[in-house]
Structures are given as C-alpha cells and as structure tokens.
TrEMBL record:
Name of the gene: mtnA
UniProt entry tagged with the keyword Nucleus: no
Biological role stated in the UniProt entry: Catalyzes the interconversion of methylthioribose-1-phosphate (MTR-1-P) into methylthioribulose-1-phosphate (MTRu-1-P).
Recorded family membership: Belongs to the EIF-2B alpha/beta/delta subunits family. MtnA subfamily.
GO MF: S-methyl-5-thioribose-1-phosphate isomerase activity
Name of this chain's protein: Methylthioribose-1-phosphate isomerase
Keywords: Amino-acid biosynthesis, Isomerase, Methionine biosynthesis
EC number, UniProt record: 5.3.1.23
Binding site for substrate: 48-50, 89, 193, 244-245
Length: 341
C-alpha cells in the first residue's frame, strides 16, 4: 500500500491543500495564507468533503488570526473573516463545527487555535480508521466473510477527510482483509468526484473498481451486481435523515428495492443534533455552468437553465446502518420487499 494521501497539512506558515480540482491529471499542492483565498478554495472545491472542510475551517481560523496581526484588523473584521470561512459552504455541518470548535481559543491567540485545530486533524484520522474497522466488521457479519461487491458515490476517501477516509475507509479495511471483490464508483456528475477522486484513490490502493455513470447505479444494484452501497455524509439530522452528494438518495431507494444494505459511514461530528430532520438541512445550490458546460464547452443550448443542487437528503428509513468511530447504529427499522431484474 502506498503512503496515505494527506489532503490538508499545516506547514508552519500556511495551510497546504491538495488541489482536488486538478486530480487525477496533476497532483498539485496550494499554500493558502489569506482568508479570501481559503474561502475561494472551499467554494471551488480545491478542498472538499465534510470532515476535510471541518479541519480546513479550523486551520482557517489560524490564518485569520495571523492575517489580522499582519494587517492590523480590529475585532469586528476578524470576527467577520472567521464567519466568512464558516459560511463558505452551507451543507456540510463539519465546516461550521470545525470553526466553532476552535473559536473559543481565539482570545488565547493563534498558537492555541493551532493546537486545537491540529488535534481535530489527528482525531479525524484516528476516527476514520475506527469507522473503517466497525463498518467492515458489520458488513462481514451481515453479508458473510467473503469478498464483497460494493458501490459508492462521490468521494468519501482520504481526500474528503484529514486522511484515510470514511466510506472508502471501510473499503480500505475490507481490502486489507482481502474482502473486496470490486467497487462500483459512480462518476458523480456534475463535478466527477467519483471518477476523478475515488477512482484515483482506489487505483493507488490497488482495489479493483469500475467507474460507472450515475445513471447506471440503480440498474447495477437491481441486476444483483452489488452486495452493499456505502457512502459518506455531509450532515446527519437528529432523526437520521442524511445529506450527501446529489444522487445518493436514488442509490438508497435502489438498495431498499433490492433488499441490500445502504450504509452511511461518518464521524459523530457529522451528526447535527440542532437539525431535527432532513427538511431543515440547507442544500447548496451551485453555479449553472457546472451542469450546462463540460470541460469548458457548452453541453446545452444557449439560454438553457440548470437545476444544480449539490446535495440530497436520504430519509432515515432508507439508511440501513450508520458506521461511526464508536460502532455501527442500525438506523432503518424495516425494509421494503426486494425486487430484482
Ligand atoms: C467523507 S466525505 C462525505 C461527503 O462530504 C461526500 O460524500 C460529499 O458529498 C462531498 O461533496 P463535495 O461537494 O465534493 O464536498
């Protein structure tokens, strides 16, 4: 196995990010020292994935404090810079909670914030390894100790976290146990996190995979090619409703129809007790150009309008299990009858 991917690092002077917009063609690191550049990097998905956003947000508060010192900001300017980081994307609760975790340390100075932010980074990696072990144990107990055919959507790998990954962390753990036959990686339109990032990670790990169009997922499941689907989450409401990348709910419906497990892998930090249910989760709407063009060229008539929600909500009743760092919670009470083609 190759050295683990570290999408976020602290250099001592800067937040060093793997530029995820350029993968898999190029592995380029970006050093960020200014709040505006971090907000831009978050919005453009240079750094992305809920846990990674949490760590980037926390380290972003260090950048804000250092910039405040360099530029003699007053307290209100600093506060609004921190809030701009916190609100750069709305759906992943980890971004807000990462900033909120370090905010009480702001009055103690940048070093105190840095210590707390780096603790969050370490905890995330450790937590992901535990999610991987618990998720793999649960799948083996439920489906038998045999190589599994898994389906995933978007990227919930090392790149989406501080390291190791959540849903892909489970895949990695199973792979270490020789219990992965193949992974179907949905390409994940419109920004292709599945084909660009998940496939890249699986390639590095030596896991067998297919990239498939999002539109193939339900058919692949109903035709019996998949033993379980496993995805990450951006925010889990108190009742278990789960927001994840657009397209996830269709996979959950297909899993329910086929009678196979739909598993969400996420740390407790992604569960938001302040959000009662999925209707209250803010869903990010992104630029029309992401849908209406491809690699810079138009793919729709001039004047076409786009509907571009970045996330959807899977109702708790469709979530078979939630793999966390402390164990697996069986969420869905009942399953719909299985169909097959
Ligand atoms: C461990 S990452 C979980 C989710 O954040 C992931 O599945 C996802 O939907 C990411 O969306 P993105 O828009 O790429 O930030």
């Amino acid at each position: 196995m190759t050295a683990d991917i570290a999408p976020i690092a602290w250099t001592g002077d800067a937040l060093r990010l793997v530029d995820q917009t350029l993968l898999p063609a190029r592995l380029v690191h970006r050093d960020v020292t200014e709040v505006d550049d971090l907000v831009d990097a978050i919005r453009r998905l240079v750094v992305r994935g809920a846990p990674a956003l949490g760590v980037a947000g926390a380290l972003g508060v260090v950048l804000a404090l250092r910039q405040a010192e360099r530029e003699n900001w007053d307290a209100a300017t600093l506060d609004s810079a921190i809030s701009r980081i916190r609100e750069a994307r709305p759906t992943a609760v980890n971004l807000a909670s990462g900033v909120d975790r370090v905010r009480p340390f702001v009055k103690k100075g940048a070093e105190a914030v840095l210590t707390e932010a780096l603790a969050l980074l370490d905890e995330d990696i450790e937590g992901n390894r535990a999610i991987g072990r618990h998720g793999a144990d649960w799948l083996a107990a439920r489906l038998g100790d045999r190589p599994l055919r898994l389906l995933t959507h978007c990227n919930a790998g090392a790149l989406a976290t501080a390291g190791w990954g959540t849903a892909l962390g489970v895949v990695r753990e199973l792979h270490m146990r020789n219990r992965v036959e193949v992974v179907y990686a949905d390409e994940t339109r419109p920004l292709l996190q599945g084909s660009r990032l998940t496939a890249w990670e699986l390639e590095q790990l030596g896991v067998a995979y297919y990239v498939q169009p999002d539109g193939a997922a339900a058919s692949t499941i109903l035709r019996g090619h998949v033993d379980a689907a496993i995805v990450g989450a951006d925010r889990i409401a108190a009742n278990g409703d789960t927001a994840n990348k657009i397209g996830t709910v269709g996979i959950a419906l297909a899993c329910a129809a086929a009678g196979i497990p739909f598993v969400v892998a996420a740390p407790w930090s992604t569960i938001d007790p302040a959000t009662a249910d999925g209707t209250q989760i803010p869903i990010e709407q992104r630029d029309s150009a992401e849908v209406l063009s491809y690699a810079g060229d138009p793919v729709a008539p001039p004047g076409a309008r786009a509907h571009n929600p970045a996330f959807d909500v899977t109702p708790a009743r469709l979530v078979t299990a939630l793999a966390t760092e402390t164990g697996v919670l069986e969420v869905a009470a009942g399953r719909t009858p299985a169909l097959s083609l």
